[in-house]
Design a protein that fits this description.
By secondary structure, the chain is of the alpha+beta class. A hairpin with a 6-residue loop joins strand 4 and strand 5. 29% of the residues are buried. About 6% of the residues have low confidence. This is 2-dehydro-3-deoxyphosphooctonate aldolase. It comes from Flavobacterium crassostreae.
C-alpha cells in the first residue's frame, strides 16, 4: 500500500510538471456495470467468457474490478482470480508482479490510478500468463481468453 501511494504521488507530480492530458487510456470502462455477486467460496460469480483476446492481456483493456474499501485494495483481485482455472480446469497459482501504467481517474484521491500486473501459472503451462487488473474503474467481468471457470464460481449464477 505504501508503494502504491508513493508511486501515485510521484506520478501526479510528474503529470502536473508535464501538463499531460487527462483523458484515460483505458478502453473498457463501464461505469454502470453491476457489482458481481459472491459465491459460497467467496469468489466472484462470473457468467461471461470474453472473446476479446485483449481483455486482461493488454494495458488498455484491463480487468476492471472496482473496489469500495480503501482498507483492502486486493480483495476483489483475489475474488476474481480465485474464480478462474486453467483452460482444462487446472488449479491456477497467481502472484502480483508490480503496479504500472498510470492513468487519470476520478476514483483516486490523487487523480491517478495504477494497473496491477499479475502472473498466473498452472500445471502444464509453458510460459506464465500476465494479466492487467484495475481496482479504480468498473467493468463487465468475464473469464479471459485461455482460462476456465471454477464450477462453484458459475454454479451460484444458475
Amino acid at each position: 500500500m505504501k508503494n502504491r501511494w508513493f508511486y501515485s504521488c510521484l506520478l501526479v507530480v510528474l503529470g502536473l510538471a508535464s501538463c499531460g492530458g487527462s483523458k484515460s487510456t483505458l478502453k473498457n470502462v463501464v461505469d454502470d456495470a453491476p457489482i458481481p455477486s459472491l459465491s459460497a467460496a467467496n469468489t466472484f460469480v462470473i457468467t461471461q467468457y470474453s472473446t476479446d483476446k485483449k481483455y486482461g492481456y493488454d494495458k488498455a483493456y484491463p480487468i476492471n474490478i472496482f473496489y469500495y474499501s480503501t482498507q483492502n485494495d486486493t480483495i476483489n483481485q483475489q475474488r476474481f482470480l480465485n474464480a478462474l482455472t486453467g483452460p482444462k480446469g487446472e488449479k491456477i497459482v497467481f502472484k502480483k508482479l508490480e503496479s504500472c501504467c498510470p492513468f487519470p481517474t476520478k476514483r483516486s484521491d490523487l487523480g491517478v490510478g495504477l494497473l496491477d500486473v499479475y502472473q498466473i501459472e498452472w500445471q502444464g503451462l509453458k510460459t506464465p500468463v500476465v494479466l492487467y487488473m484495475n481496482i479504480y474503474e468498473k467493468g463487465i467481468l468475464a473469464v479471459p481468453v485461455g482460462f476456465g471457470l471454477k464450477k462453484e464460481a458459475s454454479a451460484a449464477a444458475h
